[in-house]
From TrEMBL:
GO terms for molecular function: ATP binding; kinase activity; pyruvate, phosphate dikinase activity. InterPro entries: ATP_grasp_subdomain_1, PEP-util_enz_mobile_dom, Phosphohistidine_dom_sf, PPDK_AMP/ATP-bd, Pyruvate_phosphate_dikinase. Residues 959-1193 form the Pyruvate phosphate dikinase AMP/ATP-binding domain. It comes from Thermodesulfatator autotrophicus. It comes from the Bacteria. Residues 1306-1386 form the PEP-utilising enzyme mobile domain. Signal peptide: none annotated. Gene3D superfamilies: 1.20.80.30, ATP-grasp fold, A domain, ATP-grasp fold, B domain, Phosphohistidine domain. This is Phosphoenolpyruvate synthase. Pfam families: PEP-utilizers, PPDK_N.
Length: 1408
């Protein structure tokens, strides 16, 4: 529903001018006395007296009311005794107006009113005339004192002095009175002749060649104009001199016989008709044959003939229209050219005449329906030239001083365009060029909004793009006319703080209220600059010279604000005034609050900044108050505003852009609709107007105009979103997956082009090809290159067709017409020394760039497609065809998956690998996963080209960096920071688990400085250097160094210090051991990188490379796994089970690894004071998880997790129950670390489905015999398989030897511990017995997966591999001897024993 409009500015003005008491001269009351007793007239007289003397009087109203009061009531007035006094008061008032006012229109009205009253006085009957003569005499004497600029309005009046004199002469005047009359008559005639002598002589109006063409007829023309020629005027002046010597009667008679101003005007009025006969007799083929037209032009250009200008214009237009209609089509070309030559030569000083002629000619020619003729006419219009604004400043009454014909020129050309838009592209282009290069001057009071509405309601669809180019230039897309609403409040408060005494600010306020235009933005910028620098030079163009001189450079109006603005600039780090636009009110106020200064002066600064932002919003397309603007338009019939607002407030960038494009399409539908919408104009004028300045307030609405204004503002917002969207889509390289994102954005751009009125078949064709290509499985790189070359050509084609071709020819013409003096300063800055040709070339380039930059989305599209094409070319230059093909398959969007901010594109087993995928699932369940991220198998697959092509590698590194930042933020530590270091683990993770087969690097981010910082932070020297030791060992082993090297160093170090366990080292001793590791590694030629970032990158390389390590390839071959899966890389914050003996690590099964158990029961291994790698590598002694496990495995002397760390145990148990019972997961094998006994210090490192023995084939058990029982020598931990008797082997050579000798004999591999490198030995043997490790070590898991019988953790075994024997609990066993092991019970026997197939899964107790 449309709201009723009330002008707050008008209300404020009425309050301000509603003065109740003011002085009234005593003599004015005679006006009331004269109508005493006439009730209606008394009221009229009283109101008139108040109006005349009101301090804010409306002079136009005074003149009209006074004239009406006297003339309508003349009979009543002259019947009164004081009638002469009444008429004299009326005359005095009008004479005062004549003397003081400067407006031509007011002077004309005052002169007409005064002479009308005197004419009425002259009509008074002779018998009463004598008492009124003093009124006439008084006026005649005052007339002679008027300046020529004022007296001219009297002599031009309809009530001429000759007519007046003729009436007065009939009243029987005295000699003295006749002298007075003769003097004013003589004065008026002398003034008239002297005035006309200053005007062009009609005898010289026709050009010399025209007179030659006329031949004998030229004499007739000169004879015709002789009565008004300068020769005649001089004769009239001579006659006046002669008449001075005559007696009064002859003098008056002679004076009345002479022509007065109106007689001369009357002669000029008849002259065109008198010369018409001459033109008829002239040669019709002569270009100067139409003398009548020439005369009419001369009349219009002559200022003195202004009373008949309107009629002369009407005749000119009528003549031109008739001539166009008479001319045959084949000769109209010549006629158009001749007419414009005529216009050019005769109407230089009065261009408005030509504009009116051009307008009407245009209508006639366009109505002929001949496009060729229309184009010829329009070309001539352009060549004729345009009236630039020529802004020269502001006068003291706040008027802009500019070319008055400028706006008329715009409106004239616009009228022609509206008449037939699709044929007027040349003229529309010329209008765009002129306004863009020379600027424009349109005031609020011009109500140019109506002209825009008129244009939009014509048939603009065929030229919609050009129309938008034109309309964008105009600063008129506001509904509030004048200073309304918040703008008025702000400007008023700003001025009133110093009670209007700051003249500069008062002038700003009044100009914004009275005659505002977009130039006020520059004015405010100049004031802000002045306040900042105390240099008032920038203000000079915007104020009158006298005010400029009075602006102080110091004092209360500048000193305080200078200090505040200077401090504001420094605090806000501003470079230029326009930077203020990026700050909102809250930010500005906050900065001001931090600055010392008087509150009132800080308020002034705030208000000036606020006014600046409001004016920019009013005249530009930036939306600082988007919500209020849209809410306002909702009341004017625009649909779904609330929906648009909601999307803009809450949606992401693409959703915002899509919503804006949807709404822009809706607005375009309104603008191009054939429906006509009725405008709503609520325009008000001040009743009392200071200095008679026309002041207008109000509001204008018309639906198409409002739709276009909203279109431009939403396009500005959409342009910003396009820029952000393109910038956000960093495209240092292009792959097939990138094309999907690119296509999505290009589709947005295509919609934007359509909204902009642009259609390109070439662009749409290649965009269609891109769409189709993404449906094709195999599409070559060169084909994509062809498509993007085509898209780029499409954009260039659009630029040429819509922005270059329409303007190219016009630009050359108009630049030369405008010249340097009329170009906007921005086109001249820095080019002052260029020649005209060079300058025009530069300006043309700048014009086209600006035009494209102002368009909707085109520049962003051009930049986007150009960037894409350059990237594709660069890739082709730097990569082989094989690498290009690989790169095309790469999807950088699938590179990284942060565990706590998962990537939707990678949430699958293939991309994340088994380990990473399970970590992702656990993180989504809210379980305590160490923060980290997964580098997916997508990177592994394309790692070769990622590393080879710098752009892809840089992008990969940037993604790793961002992911690492998320980890830092979550952990509260900084990678590479010695005071608060973040250390990470870098581990592999294939889709099909390959436990222990690939590289792992722990505590990445360590160097000596960081470790020293860690020691200082924790106060735990042992922990810090143990952490570094572990980093060095994992780093070296990932580089291929054997574990045994470090085992030997550890043994030697223990021997030196006489300790059995590393935990018994002091901190310094652990530091010493770490440095021994470091030295050995260097000796082996392995570089130790100290830069944490480099460490991380090399670790990633090592993990990826380890996919193709010998042991990994062997494992895949043995297990029948494809080589094409690849591995992900898991990067996680380190958790420290080695921080103390109250910390630890372990692996837990959610059910016993044997038997058919559906319930949750925790089983597995843990070790205190160690990191997770110790367990999975089988390097440390482990303990059971639960009391149940402890009992069932006969390990009653070992401390269980359940007993030692109950909180950790119960938290694990809760997690297991939730996963198995609630989330319906299968039973899991969970690796964990805890940093203290509290439950909140538990971390899940990974989880995978456990393989229980019940899933394996039926197994063997030993036949219980006395010999079996007697041969029992010890027990380890049963891992897999059943009862097995076999011969002892120590190496792969041993295995191969016995396989040749007796292929069917089972072989049992004996090892102190096993590492993943032993995969070939484990695979070749039938059983495995180790001295160390638990059932969750990598070796145990691998043996289990390979279906081997395995017992680990048999600590009473010492192996002498080089000597070919082992000691088992004191018993010597040589290579080839028989031993027996039980993979269920962990029992170990000497010798060979009988086995049988178990009828059911054996209970542990049954075989002990």
């Amino acid at each position: 529903m449309k709201q009723k409009f009330t002008s707050q500015a008008l209300i404020a003005n009425l309050k301000e001018t509603a003065v109740k008491e003011f002085p009234i001269p005593e003599e004015h009351w005679v006006l009331l006395e004269a109508v005493s007793g006439y009730q209606g007239l008394e009221k009229h007289a009283f109101e008139l007296i108040r109006e005349i003397n009101h301090p804010f009087r409306n002079t136009r109203l005074v003149i009209a009311d006074l004239r009406a009061f006297v003339l309508k009531n003349f009979r009543v007035l002259i019947s009164k005794e004081k009638a002469p006094q009444v008429l004299k008061v009326a005359a005095e008032i009008l004479l005062e107006i004549l003397e003081k006012e400067s407006s031509d229109e007011i002077l004309r009205q005052a002169a007409e009113a005064l002479l009308a009253i005197l004419d009425k006085v002259a009509s008074i009957p002779s018998k009463d005339f004598a008492r009124f003569w003093p009124v006439l005499s008084f006026c005649f004497e005052h007339f002679k004192t008027l300046s020529p600029e004022k007296f001219i309005f009297l002599v031009r009046s309809y009530f001429s002095f000759k007519k007046l004199s003729q009436k007065i002469l009939q009243k029987g005047l005295s000699q003295k009175e006749l002298e007075t009359l003769a003097k004013i008559l003589s004065h008026s005639l002398r003034f008239t002749y002297e005035y006309w002598l200053k005007e062009p002589d009609p005898a010289t109006w026709l050009a010399e060649e025209a007179l030659e063409t006329l031949g004998e007829l030229a004499r007739e023309y000169l004879s015709l104009v002789k009565p008004i020629s300068h020769e005649a005027l001089k004769e009239y002046l001579a006659s006046l001199e002669k008449l001075e010597k005559e007696d009064i009667t002859q003098r008056l008679k002679g004076l009345l016989d002479l022509p007065d101003y109106l007689d001369i005007i009357r002669f000029y009025k008849e002259l065109p008709y008198k010369v018409e006969a001459l033109s008829r007799e002239a040669d019709p083929d002569d270009p100067f044959h139409n003398i009548k037209i020439i005369v009419l032009f001369r009349i219009v250009e002559t200022a003195g003939t202004s009373p008949i200008h309107e009629e002369a214009l009407r005749l000119i237009n009528q003549e031109l229209v008739q001539m166009i209609r008479k001319e045959p089509s084949e000769s109209l070309d010549d006629f158009i050219i001749r007419t414009f030559c005529l216009l050019k030569k005769n109407v230089r000083q009065y261009p408005w005449t030509a504009l009116q002629c051009i307008r009407n000619m245009g209508f006639e020619i366009l109505d002929r329906g001949d496009p060729r003729l229309a184009e010829l006419f329009l070309e001539e219009v352009v060549k004729f030239g345009f009236q630039p604004p020529e802004i020269k400043g502001v006068d003291i009454e706040w008027h802009l001083i500019c070319n008055p014909a400028h706006l008329l020129n715009i409106r004239t050309w616009l009228d022609i365009i509206v008449h037939h838009p699709k044929w007027c592209t040349t003229l529309l282009s010329a209008l765009i060029i002129n306004l863009q290069l020379a600027g424009t001057c349109i005031r609020d009071t011009d109500l140019f909004q109506k002209d825009i509405s008129k244009l939009l309601n014509s048939d603009i669809e065929p030229v919609y793009n050009l129309v938008k180019q034109f309309c964008r230039i105009l600063p008129v897309y506001y509904n509030e006319i004048g200073a309304e609403g918040l703008l008025r409040d702000v400007s008023t408060e700003l001025d009133e703080i110093h009670r209007r005494k700051d003249e500069l600010i008062h002038f700003l306020r009044k100009q914004s209220h009275v005659e505002s235009s977009n130039l006020i933005i520059d004015f405010i910028e100049a004031i802000i600059s002045f306040w900042l620098t105390k240099d008032k030079t920038p203000v000079k163009p915007f104020v009158p010279p006298e005010l400029y001189e009075r602006i102080p450079l110091e004092g209360p109006y500048i000193d305080p604000v200078h200090k505040i603005v200077k401090a504001f600039w420094e605090k806000a780090n501003l470079k230029k005034v326009k930077d203020l636009l990026a700050l909102n009110d809250e930010k500005i106020q906050k900065i001001l609050d931090e600055i010392d200064g008087p509150p009132s002066e800080k308020r002034r600064v705030f208000l000036l900044f606020k006014m600046y932002r409001l004016e920019v919003q009013k005249y530009g397309f930036d939306l600082y108050e988007l919500k209020s603007y849209l809410e306002h338009l909702k009341n004017w019939g625009f649909e779904d505003i609330d929906k648009l607002l909601q999307t803009l407030e809450k949606a992401n960038r693409e959703e915002k852009l899509e919503a804006i494009l949807d709404y822009l399409e809706y607005l375009q539908g309104i603008i191009l609709s054939p429906e006509k919408f009725k405008p709503r104009e609520d325009i008000y004028f001040k009743r009392h107007i200071a200095a008679n300045i026309p002041s207008m307030y109000g509001r204008y609405h018309e639906k198409k105009f409002d739709a276009l204004g909203l279109t431009f503002r939403l396009e500005a917002l959409a342009n910003s979103l396009f820029d952000d969207l393109v910038a956000e889509l960093e495209i240092p390289f292009i792959t097939r997956s990138t094309f999907f994102k690119i296509l999505r954005i290009l589709r947005y751009f295509r919609r934007a082009l359509q909204i902009e009125g642009i259609s390109s078949k070439k662009f749409n064709t290649y965009l269609g090809l891109l769409e189709a290509s993404l449906e094709v499985r195999r599409f070559t790189y060169t084909q994509y290159l062809d498509i993007f070359r085509g898209l780029l050509e499409g954009v260039r084609d659009i630029t040429k067709v819509y922005y270059i071709s329409p303007h190219r020819e016009n630009l050359a013409i108009i630049l030369r017409q405008l010249g340097r003096k009329n170009l906007l300063p921005k086109y001249l800055t820095g080019h002052e020394d260029l020649s005209d040709e060079e300058l025009f070339h530069r300006v043309s380039e700048r014009f086209l760039r600006d035009l494209i930059a102002q368009s909707f989305a085109l520049q962003a599209l051009d930049n986007f497609v150009s960037r894409l094409y350059r990237t594709l070319l660069e890739q082709r230059e730097k990569l082989s065809q094989e690498d290009l093909d690989l790169l095309m398959t790469y999807d950088p969007g699938r590179t990284i998956c942060p565990l706590y901010k998962p990537n939707k594109l990678t949430q699958d087993l293939i991309h994340l690998g088994n380990k990473g995928y399970n970590l992702f699932l656990l993180s989504t369940l809210g379980l305590p996963i160490p923060p980290g991220f997964i580098i997916t198998t997508e990177v592994f697959r394309c790692y070769r080209v990622i590393k080879r092509y710098q752009a892809t590698y840089d992008d990969f590194l940037a993604q790793v960096c961002r992911a690492l930042s998320l980890v830092e933020h979550r952990v509260g530590r900084k990678f590479g920071d010695a005071q608060n270091p973040l250390l990470v683990s870098v581990r592999s993770g294939a889709a099909i688990s390959m436990p222990g087969m690939m590289a792992t690097v722990l505590n990445v981010g360590s160097n000596i400085a960081i470790i020293e910082g860690l020691a200082k932070e924790t106060g735990n020297l042992w922990f810090a250097w143990d952490t570094y030791r572990r980093f060095l060992q994992s780093w070296a082993m990932a580089h291929g160094l054997e574990r045994e090297i470090f085992n030997r160093l550890m043994r030697e170090h223990k021997s030196i210090y006489g300790v059995k366990k590393k935990r018994e080292f002091t901190g310094e001793q652990m530091r010493e051991l770490a440095f021994k590791y470091r030295e050995v590694i260097k000796e082996k030629g392995i570089p130790i990188v100290d830069d944490p970032w480099e460490q991380l990158l090399i670790s990633i390389d090592l993990v990826f490379s380890s996919w193709n390590a010998e042991k990994a390839r062997a494992y895949r071959q043995i297990m029948g796994i494809s080589d094409y899966w690849g591995t992900a890389v898991c990067v996680q914050a380190m958790t420290f089970g080695n921080i103390s003996l109250k910390a630890g690590t372990g692996v837990v099964f959610t059910a016993p690894p044997f038997g058919k158990l559906s319930r949750v029961a925790l089983w597995g291994d843990y070790t205190p004071g160690n990191q997770g790698e110790d367990i999975v590598s089988g390097l440390v002694t482990t303990y059971p998880i639960s009391i149940e496990q402890k009992k069932r495995e006969g390990r009653m002397d070992e401390p269980s997790l359940e007993e030692e760390f109950p909180e950790i145990y119960h938290r694990l148990f809760d997690i297991a129950q939730d996963l198995i019972y609630n989330k319906k997961w299968s039973h899991q094998e969970i690796e964990f670390t805890f940093e203290s006994p509290e439950a909140d210090k538990l971390f899940i490192l990974q989880s995978r489905d456990m393989v229980t023995k019940e899933e394996r084939p039926r197994i063997n058990v030993f036949v219980v015999t006395e010999a079996l029982e007697n041969s029992f020598i010890g027990r380890g931990i049963g891992v897999s398989g059943g009862a097995l008797s076999g011969r002892v082997v120590f190496t792969l050579d041993d295995i191969e030897k016995f396989r040749k000798e007796d292929p069917k004999t089972p072989l049992i591999l004996l090892r102190f511990d096993t590492v993943p490198d032993d995969i070939k030995e484990i695979s070749a043997a039938d059983g495995l017995l180790t001295a160390r490790g638990g059932q969750t070590s990598h070796a145990a898991i691998v043996a289990s997966r390979l279906g081997k019988t395995c017992v680990v953790g048999y600590e009473n075994m010492v192996i002498y591999e080089d000597k070919g024997y082992a000691r088992l609990d004191g018993h010597i066993v040589h290579k080839g001897d028989w031993i027996s092991i039980d993979g269920v019970t962990g029992r170990i026997y000497l010798g060979k024993h009988l086995v049988r197939e178990a009828t059911g899964f054996p209970e542990v107790s049954a075989v002990f």
